[in-house]
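Onboarding guide, step 5: your first structure request.
Type a short instruction followed by the sequence, for example:

Predict the 3D structure of this protein.
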Amino acid sequence: MEDKNKMMIRHKLTSLPFRKIAPNIVTMLALCAGVTSIRYSIQEDWVKAVLCVFIAAFFDGLDGRVARMLKGSTKFGAELDSLSDFVSFGVAPAILLYQWALFDLPKFGWFFCLLMSIGMAMRLARFNTMLEEEPQPEYWSHFFVGVPAPAAAALVMMPVMISFEMPELTFVRSHAFCATVLCVVAFLMVSRIPTFSTKKLKVPTYMFMPMMLFVALFASFIITQPWLTLGTLTVIYALSIPVGVVVFLKEKHKFEAENK
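The system replies with structure tokens like these:
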């Protein structure tokens, strides 16, 4: 019996089921996309640099769902995901904006990029520690604390995407505008401002067909007008932040009133 137990322990140490490896593979694809974005930023290939960050965001949204679907969540995977997020959404967009607009701002251009990366690191560290804290009230289930990493990266890249569609708006490449965007996004990441989360969003049955129509339209627009579509979605997300605060306060007051 003892020999059998030793063999089982040895087997667990020398092999892993694929369901635990698959989510990490997806995370590594996200990390590769983020690092590749840095390469294209250095080469001043702005379109590919932005595209790689969005590819990283796609894989980042996919790895957690794969882990839950296969029941393959691991502590190693969670740590790898945070490191991937830091590179893909904290470092890559900062270098992109530095190479695109701030490289010739004496002394201060790099400071604003560091601010973005530091804000991302602090946000991810806080997110990891919050997982070990006591469960939040029910009204928190539809909100993030601060702006999540992929959304922050999209907000930072918004000036670049605007320039793709409207090159005549030269102010979006100015030092003042890009530095302001980096400062605001860094603040939103480390703040405790509630922002909308779709992780636990449930779609009513009667909305299934309209949603499928919306997905088809989105796919059509993303193919024909990719930067206009992504830029518009980023602007809509930015406008949703104050709306999310109002909705959160209403749900919080309702919860407190019901539990007095």
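Each response can be followed by summary notes, for example: The chain has nine helices and two strands.
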